[in-house]
Amino acid sequence: MKALVYDGPEQLGYREVAEAGPQGPDEVLVRVDTVGICGSDMHAYLGHDERRPAPLILGHEAAGLTADGRRVTVNPLVTCGTCEYCASRRENLCTTRQIISMPPREGAFAEAIAMPERNLVTVPDAYPLDKAALAEPLAVCWHAVRLAAPEGKTALVIGGGAIGVGAALALIAQGSTQVTLVEPNPARLAFLADQPFAAMTPDAVAGAFDIVIDAVGYDGTRASACERVKPGGIIVHVGLGSATGGLDIRRITLQEITFLGTYTYTAQDFRDTCAAMFDGRLGPLDWTETRALADGAAAFADLRAGRVAAPKLLLKP
Fold it and tell me: In the Cβ-directed half-sphere of 310, how many Cα atoms lie within 13 Å?
């Protein structure tokens, strides 16, 4: 089968690889229809993720068809199902969790992947598979927002990429009263002009917020989150841009601000996200751009150079 293979920093090759095959008796083959490029894929592409060594097939945001023709979207987080975290339905903290696009599991920048049956959610016939591929990043957002308990609260989202946009939409769907998103890139702001939240440059934001979601995760965005959150409010940290810096620990302590780190989603969060997508609660999800997987190297180069206005770039094998 054909796949887009990460061969080293800023090196991607589109070539023949071994056919994907089930790794266990409960696994099924999924022919990939659409796969999204995640920020973590970009980190690996730049050589910044030691968890993803070359050569490796990246990509974990996928939707496609099973051998019997079932349309599915893929929860890429494979967990043991028996540890204390899985037993308490916090599968994202499973001590032996695996995710496709990290060894030992190859990713979805390929014509096919093998997944446990329990990781597949059926997609309604009328729902486009290219939108169904957004379930994974949107589940990250749904999980983070659920933990923030946003009903009746104001919220600021830092970052206009897919996670930021998804977080803003999840905030609205889960009852936040006022949602503002900040993004410095004017092309991306223009792309987001018709969304149901206020999108603006960082210097245009006024006031403080009950909830601040950092969907970027660098020291500068963490500093902004500390500045913009109300006393007694909550900072929800989703982005994985850098590991340290930016937190005003004194203000967090003196004003009883909660800092919450979030990672991926539970299995129920993933299913709930799919339900919200399919019934329209997350909007038309029209903020993507699609290219061929064969052109994946150019797509990554364009993302690296800031030439992509859309928050999410999708690839088609």
Answer: 15
CA dihedral 147, 149, 150, 152 (to 10 degrees): 180
Domain 2-134+285-316 coded CATH 3.20.20.70: no
In the predicted model, is pLDDT for residue 54 greater than 90? yes
What is the DSSP-derived secondary structure letter of residue 264?
A: S
Q: Which tokens belong to 285?
A: 């999800």
Say whether 38 sits in a helix, a strand or coil: coil
**Claim: this prediction has a pTM higher than 0.85:** yes
Residue type, 284: P
Domain boundaries defined on the chain: 2-134+285-316, 138-261
Strands (E), 119-267: 120-122, 154-158, 178-182, 198-200, 209-214, 229-237, 258-261
76-91 burial: b if 16+ Cβ within 10 Å, else e: bbbbeeebebbeeeeb
Give the other-Cβ count within 10 Å of 61's Cβ: 30
Sign of CA dihedral 113, 117, 120, 125: positive
The residue type found at 212 is V
The dihedral region occupied by 301, where left means phi > 0, alpha psi between -120 and 50, and beta the remainder, is alpha
Helix runs in 120-185, H state only? 129-132, 135-148, 162-173
Give the orientation angle of helix 135-148 with respect to helix 267-278, to 10 degrees.
110
Q: How far apart are the C-alpha atoms of 107 and 114, rounded to whole Å?
A: 9
Q: What is the pLDDT of residue 292?
A: 98
Question: Which CATH code for domain 138-261?
Answer: 3.40.50.720
pLDDT confidence tier of residue 242, bands split at 50, 70 and 90: confident
Q: Is the pLDDT of residue 71 over 90?
A: yes
